[in-house]
Design brief:
By secondary structure, this protein is of the alpha/beta class. It has five helices and eight strands. It starts with a helix and ends with a strand.
């Protein structure tokens, strides 16, 4: 297993997790495809989206891959009047991660992070390990605590 920054952080905090590897199709980076390749429901796999709020600046939202971020709910959860997703070209310089491999763990800076409340329905959820082709299977409370996140209604 290649150790990503996210994995090193989890190990250094002694947080239990598993890894799920899958073959990447550069023509289809959808989260639904990732869920199917690792053999779990779409609701258990969470994508990481980065946005900019009009009041607090950059913030991160983790939502199930089969849903779209509700920008009004995201703004309310993050104490903004409005939020707008950043452009893909800005993702790597800001976070250190690329599209399809953006993890809420180990970004260049710890941004305010909000995890959709449906994560609490599962003992464990999947988030990117920081590279395409690898997911981290982690307890949602452990994830929230590690990244100083909050659960919120985002979808």
């Amino acid at each position: 297993m290649n150790k990503t920054n996210a994995i090193r952080i989890l190990e250094s905090h002694k947080i239990n997790f598993e890894i799920a590897d899958y073959t990447v199709d550069d023509d289809n980076l959808s989260g639904e495809t990732v869920a199917e390749k690792i053999g779990v429901s779409h609701e258990e796999v969470f994508k990481t989206l980065v946005a900019k709020g009009d009041k607090i600046g950059y913030c991160v939202f983790c939502i199930p891959v089969n849903f779209e971020l509700n920008l009004k709910k995201a703004a309310k959860a993050s104490n903004n009047k409005s939020v707008e997703l950043i452009k893909v070209k800005d993702l790597f310089p800001l976070t250190g991660y690329i599209r399809g491999g953006c993890s809420p763990i180990g970004m260049k800076k710890l941004f305010p992070t909000y995890i959709d409340e449906t994560a609490q329905l599962f003992d464990k959820i999947y988030v990117s390990a920081g590279v395409r082709g690898m997911q981290i299977h982690i307890n949602p409370d452990n994830l929230k605590n590690l990244i100083s996140g909050e659960f919120a209604d985002l979808i």
